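Whiteboard transcription, Tuesday session. T.W. wrote the structure tokens on the left side:
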């Protein structure tokens, strides 16, 4: 029973046993075919015996007892030889010769001759089969060792070690499976790290407005709140509400299976015109009379609003939103400002959750989620967003939101 459990739990042993069994069956079949062919050839040779030969029988004194033509009868050579002799005077005789024997042993009969013959063909096949069985074991063991490594890695990953990766060897299906596992493990690890960072940063950012609200309530100490105190509390409550809304939206956008709204045809020109009016930005259309993209209207509005509010927060001059169509497949929204700009080495990091440029945390407003939401919304719609310098070389930044048109 213990041996059976070992074979049932070890795939390489089962594969090796299957190979050995296949070699054994092949050996027996070849041996049987060889024996059958040998017997058939022997019968054919007996049937097509040589022509009659002159046979002379003499006694001990040398006198001729019989003389004539001997014809061999067909039969199994293992049973001996039988000749019919026809003498010249018309008499008939039979000459029977027993089969050959070796060292006084009885001659083997039938198929046993093939099995008992030392160093015969069957023994040669047995040795070849044994050599194949011994030779394929290390090959199968080496191949299945990689599968065991993958199994252990999956088990460690399931136990919580998200940094587990599988060594990739070769270019076969198992190597491809290992690469897919590593890619999946990397995405899961990045997602978990993102959620941990979101929780940690959200806790920190939520604490700030709550602390200011509590301090304002303590300073009032039962007195009639002044208009300035009431305005400060309302501002902190609005900031807290906005922060909670952004955190919830970021969490929902990270989960592809969560429904974030109904997709419809969105008029980008009307949407951008409304948002530009909110922040007093200039809208420029490059020969467009209409431009519609498929998407969730409230999410696209949120993306455009975040870009404009980010530009208004840091800009020291006018803000320009340019709307254009790139070919027949993509729409492009460019928001340019006259702010301090973004260093080239930081233009990718500013789209990370809760990341702000050095010194930006002391400025008014913003918790580092606005641009991260823009990227999540763009990717949710099959688009992209990037940051670059202004085309005219002036100080400031330009954010480019690209969205696919309806096919």
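and on the right, the sequence the group agreed on:
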């Amino acid at each position: 029973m213990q041996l059976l459990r070992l074979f049932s739990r070890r795939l390489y042993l089962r594969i090796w046993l299957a190979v050995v069994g296949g070699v054994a069956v092949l050996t027996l079949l070849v041996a049987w075919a060889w024996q059958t062919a040998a017997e058939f050839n022997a019968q054919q040779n007996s049937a097509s015996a040589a022509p009659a030969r002159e046979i002379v029988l003499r006694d001990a004194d040398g006198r001729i007892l019989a003389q004539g033509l001997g014809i061999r009868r067909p039969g199994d050579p293992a049973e001996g030889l039988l000749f019919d002799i026809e003498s010249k005077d018309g008499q008939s005789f039979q000459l029977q010769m027993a089969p050959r024997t070796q060292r006084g042993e009885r001659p083997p009969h039938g198929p046993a001759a093939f099995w008992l013959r030392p160093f015969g063909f069957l023994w040669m096949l047995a040795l070849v089969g044994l050599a194949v069985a011994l030779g394929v074991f290390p090959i199968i063991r080496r191949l299945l060792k990689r599968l065991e490594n993958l199994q252990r890695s999956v088990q460690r990953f399931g136990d919580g070690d998200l940094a587990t990766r599988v060594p990739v060897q070769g270019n076969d299906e198992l190597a491809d499976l290992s690469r897919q596992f590593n890619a999946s493990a990397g995405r899961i690890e990045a997602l978990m790290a993102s959620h941990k960072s979101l929780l940690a940063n959200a806790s920190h950012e939520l604490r700030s407005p709550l602390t200011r609200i509590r301090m304002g309530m303590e300073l009032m100490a039962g007195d009639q709140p002044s208009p300035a105190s009431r305005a400060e509390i309302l501002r902190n409550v609005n900031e807290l509400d906005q922060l909670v809304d952004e955190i919830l939206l970021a969490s929902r956008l990270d989960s592809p299976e969560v429904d974030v709204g109904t997709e419809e045809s969105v008029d980008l020109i009307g949407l951008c015109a409304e948002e530009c009016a909110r922040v007093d930005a200039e809208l420029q259309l490059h020969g467009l009379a209409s431009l519609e993209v498929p998407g969730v209207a409230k999410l696209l509005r949120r993306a455009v609003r975040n870009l404009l509010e980010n530009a208004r927060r840091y800009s020291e001059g006018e803000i320009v939103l340019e709307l254009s169509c790139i070919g027949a497949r993509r729409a492009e929204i460019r928001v340019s400002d006259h702010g301090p700009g973004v260093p080239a080495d930081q233009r990718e990091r500013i789209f990370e959750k809760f990341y702000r440029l050095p010194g930006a945390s002391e400025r008014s407003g913003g918790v580092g989620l606005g641009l991260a939401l823009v990227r999540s919304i763009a990717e949710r719609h099959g688009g992209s967003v990037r940051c670059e310098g202004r085309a005219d070389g002036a100080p400031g930044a330009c954010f480019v939101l690209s969205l696919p048109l309806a096919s």
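Someone added at the bottom: The two ends are 64 Å apart (CA to CA).
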